[in-house]
Amino acid sequence: MCTAATYKTKDFYFGRTLDYEFSYGDQIAITPRNYPLHFRHAGDMENHYAIIGMAHVAGDYPLYYDAINEKGVGMAGLNFVGNAAYADVWSGVDNIAQFEFIPWILSQCSSIVEVRKLLGQINIVNTPFSEQFPLAQLHWIISDEKESITVESMADGMHIYDNPLGVLTNNPPFPQQMFQLNNYMHLSPKQPENNFGNGIELNAYSRGMGALGLPGDLSSSSRFVRVAFTKVNSFSGESEEESVSQFFHILGSVDQQRGCCEVSDGKYEITLYTSCCNATKGIYYYNTYENHQISAVDMHREDLESQKLICYPVIQGEKINFQN
Ligand SMILES: C[C@H](CCC(=O)NCCS(=O)(=O)O)[C@H]1CC[C@H]2[C@@H]3[C@H](O)C[C@@H]4C[C@H](O)CC[C@]4(C)[C@H]3C[C@H](O)[C@]12C
Predict the structure, then answer these.
(1) Is the minimum distance from the CB of 161 to ligand 1 under 6 angstroms?
(2) Which segments does the entry list as coiled coil (predicted)?
(3) Distance between CA 275 and CA 139 in Å, rounded?
């Protein structure tokens, strides 16, 4: 399972949890403006917007999981197993392989308005990256500071939904996730009122009772409601530290602890990493299951005119701040 979220204070923040039972070997990869991008069916691109994100780097090709570009657009792919379907190559459209979708969008679009235009001529195709890396069944959230959309390529075609919450998890399809929020519209950060009428004496004996019924399990639909509730009620100061801290707390609401989600005998899905991008400033913050300290890579500290991919390893291992 995975969860993505957006958050706005002075700057715009975009990030995700990546939940899985193993790591593909991740790095923070910066694709600078002049790194040549070769698309399998859509030609070459010599210059483009710079991109930073989490990727598996195969050879020197960044297979992005989630990323932002220098214009403040963010995009993340989350599992959509059993529902994702990609098409064959057609003529007269931009045929973009599933693994090329993030670079295709982030290299060219400076806003969701531009993303929507590009999506109008895209066909996401079933060309795998390699035998070792077959197609990943995903759906995507794409956001800028003004709006978010969800893209789902399914057997009946490509769907583009407005995503007014700016959150995404996994199955079921997005309209169903939104529909089930109807069941939770009564949830509130305020204390509940007694609607049982006069004479029935009830007592809000604990703080937080306005959100009684918020689903606490790790299923995708429960995480959707939980992260949506947390995000829409979230409140923090505007500084970078306060915003980043609050963002990690929002995604902390859907964190997965080893042992609670067994995917096969003795194998557990956990939150391998959590990212928080300051999309306004081009900074990729993250922490991992094994390292709660926040680490960061700032794209603007690099030569963004370069032609070479720039990679940083994910820093693991807890750093405990002894005070005595
Ligand atoms: C496993 C990741 C998604 C995690 C997730 O959503 N878990 C939920 C589990 S569940 O459904 O709810 O059970 C996805 C997100 C991005 C994916 C990667 C990216 O798409 C980039 C390439 C794409 C290649 O086709 C496959 C390898 C790969 C390197 C992908 C491996 C894997 O499928 C990743 C890492």
Answers:
(1) no
(2) none
(3) 18
Residue 81 Cβ contacting ligand 1 at under 6 Å: yes
CA distances from 61 to 36, 68, 99 (A): 10, 17, 10
Q: Which residues are catalytic?
A: 2
Nearest protein Cα to ligand 1, atom 11: 79
- Count of CA atoms in the C-beta half-sphere (13 A) of 41: 23
**Nearest protein Cα to ligand 1, atom 34:** 65
The reported pTM is: 0.97
User: How many Å lie between the centroid of ligand 1 and the Cα of residue 65?
Assistant: 7
Q: Find out whether 73 and 111 touch, Cβ atoms under 8 Å.
A: yes
CA angle 253, 236, 180 (to 5 degrees): 40
Domain count, the chain: 1
19 touches ligand 1 (CB under 6 Å): yes
Is the ipTM of this structure higher than 0.90?
yes
Residue 16 Cβ contacting ligand 1 at under 6 Å: no
CATH code of the domain covering residue 155: 3.60.60.10
Confirm or reject: Cβ of 20 under 6 Å from ligand 1. Answer: yes
Look at residue 130 and tell me if it is in a domain. yes
60 within domain boundaries: yes
Ligand 1, atom nearest to 81 Cα: 11
